Amino acid sequence: MRRIMIATVLSVAALALALAVVVGDLPDPVATHFGPDGSADGFSDRSTLWVTTLGIPAVVAGLLTVLTSALPASLPRGVRWVRGIPVGIVWTVGGIMLATLWPQRGLSDASDVRVAGSAIVLGLSLGIAATLAASRLAPVVDPPETTGRAPAGLPRADLADDATALWQGTTPPGRFATWLTVGLVGAGLVAGILTAWWLGLVLVAVGLLPLAGARFRVTIGPASVQVSGWLGGWPRLAVPLATVTAARASTMRAFEYGGPGLRLAVGQPITAVVTGTGPALDLVRTDDSMVRISLVEADRAAAVVNSLLDRRGHSARPDGATDGPG
Amino acid sequence: MLLTIDVGDDRPLYLQVAASVRRAVVDGQLEPGAALPPTRDAAAALGVNPETVQRAYRLLADESVVVARVGRGTRVRDDLDPGLLGLDTAIDELVARAATLGLGRAELAARIAADGGS
Prior knowledge:
The complex is a heterodimer of chains A (326) and B (118). Chain A has 326 residues and is an alpha+beta fold. Chain A has 2 domains: 2-135, no CATH class; 155-174 and 213-323, Pleckstrin-homology domain (PH domain)/Phosphotyrosine-binding domain (PTB) (PH-domain like, Roll), CATH 2.30.29. Chain A is built from 7 helices and 13 strands. Chains A and B meet through strand 4 of A and strand 1 and helix 2 of B.
């Protein structure tokens, strides 16, 4: 996390430098809000730019740095990009701000400026790229590996001793996420037709994000449990079985971790894939962290995982194994 | 849906994968229209060559159990009757068992007809 913090501070410093370069050439007052057609409809004193352009993203990035530093050290593979969000926020807001300020250089009256909607698209693109790049700075930490069997008393699947198994299931469809997507994409299409294309594009792009968390495919194999979302398999999460000690079926509420989707519980070592209230597969890891996944057939999945855990370095079936569903 | 292969089983691996898919359909774990695991995912999870899984899927497509479409992957046929598939599978097993006893299809059919008339 220290590297991410340094990257966040350097990003804020770069934004401050960029602002210092352009601020002297800007009109006063400066245009700070724009209508759908790109014309300025809101103005601020030039001196306030240090607060709006630099202070706000710096404070937000600082808060997100505190939040992300509270995440468990061993996040499942595939969600480590979350650690780069503080840096991404600085580049997103900074990118949008600078893209709207840059055309105002040398103008005597800010009302003459027109800003292309692509400024927002540019800012979002910069933010995504910066998030992914910064997340690579975080060290990859996996929980310790184990070859132990799952605890006796947990359900097992009826697998032959020498069998290799693949189990695949899906999460229940997430109604909340689906309706959110329908609403945002619909609003985006209307906005794109009636106002500005870029506004529609941004709304449609943002609207597709909840769809990614509306339904997931869960694949269990001897090596890992893989969870992949709808949008080309994204978001994708992988939990190596070597880091799992037990699997259980439980129940998870839709808003237990703040809402549906891929959730990282701050202050708790829990990563959750939530699509709604219902059955869930709980994977307990060797560092006592847990991955919880909404799953239609959570009991079957837990039985398969436990059977696969038993096979790590062993060929015989465990004593007391119950014949779970298969 | 659970697919299994057993290294202690004498049957070729692709036949085991195909049988596992049929069983999943008959058991209701794979419903008509449901997607099969992507070849690469299935091969990686089962620890076999992707060609083994592709061969199994091709066999199932030849049997009209699944249909492969570009961009949609391989899916169980929408109009497939799992009950009839279960019956066909049971018949195949019966024929195989009769063969181990030296009975041909005609003899087996005669025994079934005789049994049905009793």
